[in-house]
Specification:
Order of helices and strands: EEEEEEEEEEE
Distance between the termini: 37 Å
Number of helices: 0
Largest sheet: 7 strands, mixed
Oligomer: single chain
């Protein structure tokens, strides 16, 4: 499956962004989807998870209550709504697909990755 993330940009602290990840290729609903981010000089970290149906989600503690992930299997898209953004949310954000039937929070559990989209939050 090929993934293309978009929607990043520059926003002031307290603002919102909506990231989108478009999938093509194999059956999208076969895959759980994850969002990860990587800030300069830091390791890639888990942000959010949504299972194949969209019925189960999971979030990193650092974004819980501010970020929401969802998916539209008919459109082969997954979304990350980011509200109340903070400067520490600045990073390149990646979407990833994995054939898992449990909540996956480690990058090694995902098989396919998008190219990343830059999110910059100014103070």
């Amino acid at each position: 499956v090929q993934l293309q993330a978009s929607g990043g940009g520059l926003v002031q602290a307290g603002g919102s962004l909506r990231l989108s990840c478009a999938a093509s290729g194999r059956t999208f609903s076969d895959y759980a989807m994850g969002w990860f981010r990587q800030a300069p000089g830091k390791e890639r970290e888990f942000v959010a998870f949504v299972n194949w149906s969209g019925g189960t989600t999971n979030y990193a503690d650092s974004v819980k209550g501010r970020f929401t992930t969802s998916r539209d299997n008919a459109r082969k898209r997954v979304y990350l709504q980011m509200n109340s953004l903070k400067p520490e949310d600045t990073a390149v954000y990646y979407c990833a697909a994995g054939q898992v039937r449990y909540i996956a929070t480690m990058s090694t559990e995902y098989d396919y990755w998008g190219q990343g989209t830059q999110v910059t939050v100014s103070s």
